[in-house]
Amino acid sequence: MFMIEYRALSWWYWLVTVGFLTAGVSGWPTGCLIAIGLTVFQLIHFTIREHSITAFPIQVRLGYLLLLLIALPEYLQLIYWIPTIGTWAQVLFGYCAMARMVSLLPWNRKETFSPGLLKRTFLSAPVRGNVLQRLPPA
Q1: What pTM was computed for the model?
Q2: How far, in Å, CA of 119 to CA of 61, rounded?
Q3: What pLDDT was estimated at residue 126?
Q4: Is 11 within 8 Å of 91 (Cβ atoms)?
């Protein structure tokens, strides 16, 4: 059930990020700003590591950063709960909803968009590594 990958650097990035997000939604707004900064740093680090801005891990982090930035205005800060809950799911159980959503983008899939694809994408069990290559076949 738990998929705590403490040997992976990315897991530590997500753990620290969700710690700051949790502090942010708990009443310390600076926590959300630090989470945004850490996500920018993580995005730069993984872009250098992957040697490509189009690599799947970069797309996931970019989508995550965009969600955090959308929630930045005070009247939208309730949205911070979405990445906070989602990141806890990633850190504890290995379920990354953002990666699953990014896998549905046209350039990341080989099959046509369908209800079956949606079902397999969001209801398949978490896997170690890249969800893009581990979704069950049609």
Answers
A1: 0.90
A2: 23
A3: 86
A4: yes
| Digit-coded pLDDT (tens) for 89-107 | 999 999 999 999 999 999 9
| Tokens linked to 83 | 């990445």
Which two tokens mark 33? 């700003």
User: Do residues 18 and 32 lie in contact, with contact meaning Cβ atoms separated by under 8 Å?
Assistant: no
Q: What is the pLDDT of residues 27-67, one digit of tens each?
A: 999 999 999 999 999 999 999 999 998 999 999 999 999 99
Look at the block and give the residue holding tokens 């806890």: 88
Q: State which amino acid sits at residue 72.
A: L
Q: Does 128 or 71 have the greater pLDDT score?
A: 71
User: CA-CA distances (angstroms) from residue 61 to 41, 111, 113, 120?
Assistant: 10, 24, 23, 22
